[in-house]
Amino acid sequence: MAPHEGIRPMRAIFIRDGNIFTTGFTRMSQRELGLWDPTNFEEPIALLELDTSNGVLLPYYDADANMVYLCGKGDSSIRYFEVTEEPPYVHYLNTFSSKEPQRGMGFMPKRGVDVTKCEIARLYKLLDKKCEPITMTVPRKSDLFQDDLYPDTAGPDPAMEPEEWLDGRNEDPILISMREGYMPAKSRELKVARKNVLDRPTTRRSMSTLDTNSLPPQLLERLLEEIQNLKATVLSQEKRICDLENKLSQYTNGTA
Fold first, then answer.
1. N or C: more exposed end of the chain, with fewer CB within 10 A?
2. pLDDT-based confidence at residue 49 (cuts at 50, 70, 90)
3. Which residues contact 229 (CB under 8 A, 6 or more apart)?
4. What average pLDDT does this structure show over 149-153?
């Protein structure tokens, strides 16, 4: 028995609970999807009509999230569904739409997504002159690793050799943790902005702007004396620095 009554091309994929997810056409050329129990093809678990477009629906399955992404050739949208054990079994989630129709679509394995951005799927949309990545993300405010979004997934190592499979052996895939691909965001550095004390406004005025007539004679005389002493100190230090520079140049030139 055919899963869909239409004669146009069909597609089928196995999902993790052993059931079969199919896409095809009705007798009236409407696109539809179905969920089937492989032990009983008399009645579908779920059968849902979508639209009347001509493009063949290509299903891409995410076993970790039990989600199916439907991409039709010539469509400019991607529908995604969640498969559960509760009626209606195939739950419509949302549709991603763009302006340009796709000529084909590719699906990134789960271990290639960016877990730091809560990316759960990445598809590559083939256009006339380029290949455009499309990312599916789940908005989360936390910077921590999201365990519920990333259960252990199938790794790159095979669970058995081809000869073992041909002999009838069956093994579950070797799973790896997605946590190893998680790089926590850099902790924000605490920066204390301190202004330079020299930039602060000051109420002091130079001696040239002071009203000397308002100062007591004794204070004015003491200030002038301190200024003279400072000038003398500066002159003596300049002379000492010149002497040291002369001695250093003599040692450098080998004349000392």
1. N
2. very high
3. none
4. 94
What DSSP line would sit under the chain, residue for residue? --SSSSSS--EEEE-TTS-EEEEEE-TTS-EEEEEEBTTB-SS-SEEEE-----SPEEEEEETTTTEEEEEETT-SEEEEEEE-SSTTSEEEEEEEE-SSPPSEEEE--GGGS-GGGTEEEEEEEE-SS-EEEEEEE---S--S--TTT---EE-SS-SS-HHHHHTT---PPPEE-GGGG--PPPPPP-------GGGS------GGGS-GGGS-HHHHHHHHHHHHHHHHHHHHHHHHHHHHHHHHHHHHHT--
Model pLDDT for residues 126-143, shown as the tens digit of each residue: 998 899 999 999 999 888
Using alpha carbons, list the distances in angstroms from residue 29 to 73, 101, 121, 190, 203.
15, 20, 30, 63, 88
Residue whose C-alpha is closest to residue 83's, from 146, 26, 179, 19? 19
CATH number for the segment(s) 11-181: 2.130.10.10
Sketch the domain layout of the chain as residue ranges.
Answer: 11-181
Euclidean distance between CA atoms 81 and 65, whole angstroms: 10
